[in-house]
Automatic annotation (TrEMBL):
Gene3D superfamilies associated with the record: P-loop containing nucleotide triphosphate hydrolases
NACHT domain ranges (all copies): 86-228
InterPro entries listed in its UniProt record: NACHT_NTPase, P-loop_NTPase
A Pfam family per the record: NACHT
Cross-referenced PROSITE patterns: NACHT
Name of the molecule in the record: NACHT domain-containing protein
Amino acid sequence: METTKKLKGYYKLQDKMALFFDDREQLIENCYIPLNLLNQKQVKIRKERTANNKEKQSNALEYSSEQETTDLQDIWKDTENESTVRHICIRGEAGSGKSALTQKIAYLWANNQIWGDQFQYLLRITLGNIYHIFDSNSNGNGNDDEKKREYNENMESQWSKVIHELGIPQWDRKDTHCIMHSKGSLLLLLDGFNEIANEIHKRPWLRQWLQHCTKHNNCHIIMTSRPNLMCSYLDNPKVLTVIGFESHDIPNYIHAYFQNISVKEKNDWEADLIQKLDNNSSLKTLGHIPFYLRLFCYLARQEKEREKDRKRIQKRTSANTFGNMPFSQFFGKVIESYMRWNWQKCNGTKEPPNGQMLFHAFEMEMHYLSHVAWEGLKHEKVAISCKIQQEVLHKIEAKYPCKDISVLSQWSRIHSFGFVQGQERINPSHPIESVYFPHSTLQEWLAAYYLVHCLYQPEDSDEHKQACSIVANELLTPRYTMTISYMAGILYGNIENKIDQSGSGLLYFWKQLHLSESSPYRLIPVHYLLSLMHCLEACKADTSSSFLSPELHVIHQGLIRSFQDLLVVWCTSTKHAQTRYTKTLDDLMHSHLAQFQYLLLHRDIHSCIVKQIKTVQAQMRISNNNNNNNNNENENEVIRHHLQILTSLCISSTETMELVVRSFEQMFRHWELDSCSEWQDYFLQVLAGLNQTQLHTIVQRMQDELLAKHTHEKYAGLLTGIAAHLNTAQLNIVLKWIIQTFASSNNNNNNNNNNNNNNNNNDNQHKMCLVCAHTLATVALQLKKKKTNRQ
């Protein structure tokens, strides 16, 4: 019992999740969110769904809120085979939360919340931290029989070494003896078999210690590893796979993360990040993986704290990026963060190199991943075959000889780095299964990274010619469009980071797109121009930085002027509002503008947008008056066209958002109720793009309109539509208003009945109550949902 007390005391103190770079400490009790655990049957079903996604060129990962999972409490039960489970192997991709899961198990056991009646002792051992104690120099050659016998006879001393590495206070030999002779009441949590797989053959004592743990019946084992590695010493293990978070877990994790931060704005920060993920399917899909979700929280917190320190108002309300990062830079940051995380796992507390030094440290891995990503993209493959991987590996082996990389083989180091998913078996020398990337956008970015590398190769090389051909001829090919824009961002970053100070790479890129100082920018077709705008967006729409060459300034300014002309034509095309061309242009502009940030904040574009919004507002007033007088379908089409423009343009800045919202409020107040529902959808699109500070201001302004009889129904319906975007405090405010409206309505009804007023007045009051009831039900449901998700 004394040994158990020491262990529980030790693991109760292990109450903080592993540090994530320089992030703040996260209490495991508050911040840990249960992960999805699937048994082999459930994994097979998920694989079939993922395979369907691959065939459809969809995202590689498949998450369903309806999928069956295995509860942590029940993992020792084997209902299918009705056998006794002694060993469990929990497999998962890099960053899926395996280590955090073992830490949570140890913490729950120490606090008598799990398996207390089943296991008297528990040890959590990170294998990557202890393999070095099994000295390969003195005992690893396998020829010293005397030392091998000594090792087998003195296993207790080896156990003492292992436990010494754990640093359990007041531990002594008696405690070690209890562990070794526990008679079935010991649980070993062996975390990270993949980190020692290459060491087993080099360190015989490590191998024999693992065999000792697995062969004796005195202990149960939970071992974690990557999907393509399983310890052969486990006895008929039950295999579970951890796949990360379900959809409803994502806001729960974000809530737990930001509640750990002592700032009054934390609820707004939380809501803004949830909104960002909801508005971007690529980021939300990655958010199912714990590593990426914590990275998003970390980057969002850094951004908000910088904003707070600078005491500046957030200009951007759209959710495409964190802070001031275009997508190309953001995904570069994601991959850089993955490399930092990998570095820390391999090097412990040693400070990792920064920025480009990390890319240099993992040069071979990046070359392999980017080349594989490109070959997959070129052949339109999400699942990348062994043949493609092997062809790339041959080139890597020639470029990076083993003597230069300090490991047994190039493949072992590439495999250890991870990042790609789907490879469940491993061969020590070459790939044997198809793989896929965590998300198609990461594959596109890595392919761009490879093509940029090719651009800098000699002009007569096949790689260089291939990259030039793709840029020059495939900008409008859907599968290459984003990759080419990411290339622009990477090339711009090379200038910023002084890798290519002259900017020759970016200038060469633009010339491949047939742009130069003398190009006829005003004659560029619309689809092609919008694709070029994505490339310029990746370059931060930069027309002023001193580090850009004069030639680049001229090209960027020419593109800005072309885009200005397009905006003006679009916003003033009211005479042709009913034509197919204008409707197509509306849809095209709306879809593209939602993806721009820097372009819309460029001083020339922003001033143009403000001017066009004011022009549209004036035209809207005229169209609205004409429509009220004539109810003309042509005027309705003009109104729809104007609303589409306002909805698209409001996202550029705080100023434009305020202009558009004010305009909608004025029009909404005067729209007739029977036409209001159609226009309300546009207003809801605008409101959905507000950050929490802006949304709170708008909600406050709605109070008088909600309580006023002539605007009551319209604004009650509007609040119903935006309820899903409100935080708990805002929902409670609306709930209070609805109750006040109910009370007012009931009082009026009573007065009307007492005074025997006409039936029409009573009917109007009754309608107000029905609208309130619908809004009240929606708000109450959202409050219940938020409360349930956080329990």
